[in-house]
């Protein structure tokens, strides 16, 4: 395995590259752009890279389906950390292009909902066509295939483009969450401000099936931060669920919730327990009474005494 190489959704100049460069370890790795999320993750599966950084969630558009589907299928991978990056777009054009001359625009599909209102107001007649990434859209503008691309302003220098308009975003404080993904290994030690990600498949489609899954978390005081359904490909009505939960797998409440899921579901894929970006233990809400590790231990000791006749 190449321990010195990280892959990411390319080409050069993507928000993913910008997010990757915020990680201290990126300074000592070879950063290799890939044409797609599956390609970046497959390089890790093949041992050609130690890890890949890919987008997984946007505060406007929600989950990045390409990443969620890749993590749910194929050879298992594991999330080791996450990065949050504020997102604002620039309209990049070839030098000399005016706004009135922009008839075709491009960008990543996740970008479109974040600039839809701006487009409607400023370029109502422009035709949108999606690109593999925002930077790939900028590259296609450089080649003359489109008049403009929505991308990070920093991508302009890479592709010889200039920003016609900057700080474009329909929603204030928009962010994208990226995850650093590697091959499965022992999770890092808990920090007190962690997140656990899993993919869950329903065993049987019946009334209350989803509620049964949620109750495994709820009765143990585990807060869910994301739950998104994704089709399994086995036919209409067949879904799996990507779930992010507060806490670390080593915590009793989280571990027992996962055991509960495994008892009632045919398949539960553990995607990792890792530190939450931008959150410290002081920021985490206090645990509900009866859900701390000492309380789980005390209850377990009580049960053992009952079984031994020492209650």
Percent helix: 25-40%
| Total beta-strand segments | 15
Low-confidence stretches: none
**SS element count, helices:** 9
Order of helices and strands: EHEHEEHEEEHEHEHEEEHEEHEH
Task: Name the structural class.
Answer: alpha/beta
Distance between the termini: 54 Å
Biggest sheet, in brief? 6 strands, mixed
Question: How much strand content do the residues show?
Answer: 25-35%
Average pLDDT figure: 93
Tell me the Rg in angstroms.
22 Å
Spatial shape: elongated
What features would you highlight for this structure?
311 residues; alpha/beta; six-stranded mixed sheet; 15 strands; 28% helix
Kindly describe this structure:
- It is a single chain.
- The chain has 311 residues and is α/β, with parallel strands linked by helices.
- The protein is 28% helix and 30% strand.
- The chain contains nine helices and 15 strands.
- Strands 1, 2, 3, 4, 5 and 11 form a six-stranded mixed beta sheet that branches. It has a five-stranded mixed beta sheet with strand order 8-7-9-6-10. A four-stranded antiparallel beta sheet has the order 13-14-12-15, sandwiched between helices.
- It is elongated and about 85 Å long.
């Amino acid at each position: 395995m190449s321990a010195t190489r990280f892959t990411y959704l390319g080409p050069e100049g993507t928000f993913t590259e910008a997010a990757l460069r915020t990680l201290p370890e990126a300074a000592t790795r070879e950063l290799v752009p890939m044409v797609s999320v599956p390609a970046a993750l497959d390089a890790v599966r093949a041992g050609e890279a130690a890890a890949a950084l890919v987008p997984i969630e946007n505060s406007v558009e929600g989950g990045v389906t390409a990443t969620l589907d890749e993590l749910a299928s194929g050879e298992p991978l594991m999330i080791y950390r996450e990065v949050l990056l504020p997102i604002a777009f620039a309209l990049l054009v070839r030098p000399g292009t005016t706004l009135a001359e922009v008839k075709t625009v491009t960008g990543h599909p996740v970008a479109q909902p974040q600039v839809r209102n701006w487009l409607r107001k400023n370029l109502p007649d422009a035709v949108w066509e999606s690109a593999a990434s925002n930077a790939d859209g900028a590259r296609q503008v450089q080649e003359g295939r489109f008049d403009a691309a929505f991308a990070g302003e920093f991508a302009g220098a890479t592709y010889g483009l200039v920003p016609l308009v900057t700080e474009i975003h329909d929603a204030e404080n928009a962010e994208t969450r990226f995850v650093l993904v590697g091959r499965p290994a022992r999770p890092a030690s808990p920090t007190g401000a962690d997140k656990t990600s899993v993919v869950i498949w329903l065993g049987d489609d019946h009334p209350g099936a989803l509620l049964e899954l949620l109750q495994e978390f709820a009765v143990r005081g585990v807060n869910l931060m994301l739950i998104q359904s994704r089709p399994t490909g086995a036919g209409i009505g067949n879904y799996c669920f990507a779930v992010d939960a507060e806490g670390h797998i080593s915590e009793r409440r989280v571990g027992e919730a996962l055991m509960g899921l495994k008892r009632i579901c045919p398949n539960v894929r553990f995607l990792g327990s890792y530190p939450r970006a931008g959150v410290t233990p002081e920021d985490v809400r206090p645990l509900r009474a009866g859900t701390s590790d000492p309380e789980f231990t005390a209850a377990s000791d009580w049960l053992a005494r009952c079984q031994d006749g020492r209650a």
